[in-house]
Amino acid sequence: MITENTGLVPDHEVPHLVGSATIISIEDVDKWYGDFQVLCKINLQVKKGERIVVCGPSGSGKSTLIRCINRLEQYQKGRIVVDGIDLGASTKNVNAVRSEVGMVFQQFNLFPHLTILENCMLAPMKVRGTSRSDAEAIAMQYLKRVRIPEQAKKYPAELSGGQQQRVAIARSLCMTPKIMLFDEPTSALDPEMVKEVLDTMVSLADEGMTMVCVTHEMGFAKAVADRVIFMDRGEIVEVAKPDIFFTNPQNERTRNFLGQILSH
């Protein structure tokens, strides 16, 4: 078992297929905030069905990288292609990618004046032109999927943090995305709520969803990741399968990071 300090998720082998086709291609990507370079020559290929966990110290560029994948952040150099669509080509391409890529943030970003059901129905109706009745059916399907269908008529303020984050995951799934991006989805949660969100993410991984997850939950990385990426100072320092990453990291910066995070 993984200890409580490393993420509350048990070690297990998850049988799944990683495709041969690349669904996310990141080539020589650089990004600056003014004079500060936050991403430096980032190269990463993600296969369809692959589960990637990105970790590293605060300020290492993890969240910026994941936000570049659907152009919530604009990069200055390099190329990102998502499901065959070049993000740098046009605004139309950016919108096309965003409709196929779900993203779950640290904060839940639910509309407080809408019910849970209405929060989940909104994007399919507005973006995909789904009818209200079909959108409701889809929303209920995914609220059941994250095990909170009984909360459908409530408002976000009536739910716990863990429940709200599961709603945020359901809302993303309602767009039937090909890829799910998670930006530290448990960092704003109380410790007792972390497990319910991680369990939901594990079950998504079990179904073969392509996932890129920025997290410090090393138990989750051990349980479900195909590869773990360690970033520091805007660079990808090390990439390895979990069994190698946690038992025999090659880079001194990786070893120092794991020594700090796993000892807490």
Explained architecture:
It is a single chain. It is globular, with a radius of gyration of 18 Å. A six-stranded mixed β-sheet has the order 6-7-8-3-9-10, with helices on both faces. A four-stranded antiparallel β-sheet has the order 2-1-4-5, covered by helices on one side. It has nine helices and ten strands. The chain has helices spanning 62-68, 91-98, 116-127, 132-145, 161-173, 191-206, 218-224, 242-247, 252-261; strands at 22-33, 36-47, 51-55, 77-82, 85-86, 101-104, 179-183, 210-214, 227-232, 235-240. Helices cover 35% and strands 24% of the residues. The longest helix has 16 residues, at 191-206. Helix 4 packs across helix 5 (161-173) and helix 5 (161-173) packs parallel to helix 6 (191-206). By secondary structure, the protein is α/β, with parallel strands linked by helices.
List the helices and strands and how they pair.
Layout: E1 22-33, E2 36-47, E3 51-55, H1 62-68, E4 77-82, E5 85-86, H2 91-98, E6 101-104, H3 116-127, H4 132-145, H5 161-173, E7 179-183, H6 191-206, E8 210-214, H7 218-224, E9 227-232, E10 235-240, H8 242-247, H9 252-261
Parallel strand pairs: 3-8, 3-9, 6-7, 7-8
Antiparallel strand pairs: 1-2, 1-4, 4-5, 9-10
Key structural traits:
264 residues, six-stranded mixed β-sheet, 9 helices, 24% strand, disordered N terminus
How do you describe this structure in short?
This protein has 264 residues and is an alpha/beta fold.
Distance between the termini: 17 Å
Question: In order across it, which strands form the biggest sheet?
Answer: 6-7-8-3-9-10
Q: Proportion of β residues?
A: 15-25%
Number of strands: 10
Q: Helicity level, as a percent range?
A: 25-40%
- The rough form would be described as globular
Number of helices: 9
Q: In oligomeric terms, what are we looking at?
A: single chain
Rounded to an integer, what's the Rg over CA atoms?
18 Å
Mean pLDDT, all residues: 90
Unreliable segments of 5+ consecutive residues: 1-14
How would you classify the helix and strand content by structural class? alpha/beta
Reading the helices and strands in chain order gives EEEHEEHEHHHEHEHEEHH
Largest sheet: 6 strands, mixed
